[in-house]
């Protein structure tokens, strides 16, 4: 199975001497939803949500972040790596909406897409509709409930974080070239109740096939996001969105972002948290609980 078997359409446009790569999927002309993807993926993460979007009349739009298949923007000497990575990513999405003549769109953010979605709504609240976060990233610089490893990483100087990020990015690139083992490694973290559903047919294709497509675009720039993920909300100058327009879904068994961190985040945002009792982090991103596709009706 490949992109030709999906509704995903890939394209690009040029802005500020950079090629911006993006994709759309679902019902063209439907309710626009910008998707902010997790680490290890790209614009092709739309394969994970494509069928659910078609059922609900959603038009999914996803832009590769800087360094993910796009030319790397120059780091300005008077700002931090996190600041220019976030700001450039936000501006890319804004100009993509301009390119598609879309004045306002809802936002769907998956794990590491969270700070970029919050960055967009902070800068362009008038262009933001409803927001839905699934297994959302929580800054370890802000939350003591985050995993100790991430808390440690958030305290590292920028050069050490860059070194770690470069090695991580290389590993991601190699894993995408290899055949089945990477998928097997990823799905080994699934709860037992999720594994059977992962390998069963879901509509026209299995979740395994969708995951393969979502991870098929090789990119060396994933480490550029790490500076953003390890920064605090204050460092990123994020404004909290209107709680009436936002919903969060998280698993009580999330092994990457503990449920305690998600509860802290929801309190910071002033909203309730939908807690799933029997799902893993990956299982949530793969929408292996029917409550997650149902939540897309909110957008």
UniProtKB/TrEMBL annotation:
Organism encoding this protein: Cladocopium goreaui
Protein name from the UniProt record: Pre-mRNA 3' end processing protein WDR33
Classification via InterPro entries: AB_hydrolase, AB_hydrolase_fold
């Amino acid at each position: 199975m490949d992109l030709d078997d999906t509704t995903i359409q890939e394209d690009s446009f040029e802005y500020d001497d950079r090629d911006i790569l993006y994709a759309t999927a679902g019902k063209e002309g439907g309710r626009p939803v910008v998707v902010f993807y997790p680490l290890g993926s790209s614009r092709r993460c739309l394969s994970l949500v494509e069928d659910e979007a078609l059922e609900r009349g959603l038009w999914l739009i996803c832009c590769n972040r800087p360094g993910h298949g796009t030319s790397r923007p120059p780091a300005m000497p008077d700002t931090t790596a996190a600041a220019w990575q976030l700001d450039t990513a936000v501006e890319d999405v804004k100009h993509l909406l301009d390119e598609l003549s879309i004045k306002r769109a809802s936002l769907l953010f998956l794990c590491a897409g969270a700070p970029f979605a919050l960055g967009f709504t902070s800068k362009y609240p008038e262009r933001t509709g409803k927001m839905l976060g699934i297994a959302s990233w929580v800054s370890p610089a802000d939350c003591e409930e985050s995993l100790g490893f991430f808390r440690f990483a958030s305290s590292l100087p920028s050069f050490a974080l860059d070194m770690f990020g470069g090695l991580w990015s290389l590993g991601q690139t190699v894993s995408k070239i290899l055949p089945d083992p990477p998928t097997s490694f990823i799905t080994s973290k699934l709860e037992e109740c999720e594994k059977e559903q992962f390998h069963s047919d879901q509509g026209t294709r299995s979740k395994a096939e969708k995951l393969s497509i979502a991870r098929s675009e090789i990119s060396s720039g994933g480490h550029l996001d790490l500076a953003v993920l390890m920064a605090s909300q204050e460092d990123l100058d994020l404004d909290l969105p209107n709680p009436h327009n936002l919903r969060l879904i998280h698993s009580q068994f999330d092994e990457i972002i503990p449920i305690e961190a998600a509860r802290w985040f929801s309190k910071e945002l002033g909203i309730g948290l939908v807690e799933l009792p029997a799902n893993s982090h990956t299982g949530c991103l793969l929408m292996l609980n029917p409550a997650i596709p149902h939540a897309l009706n909110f957008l």
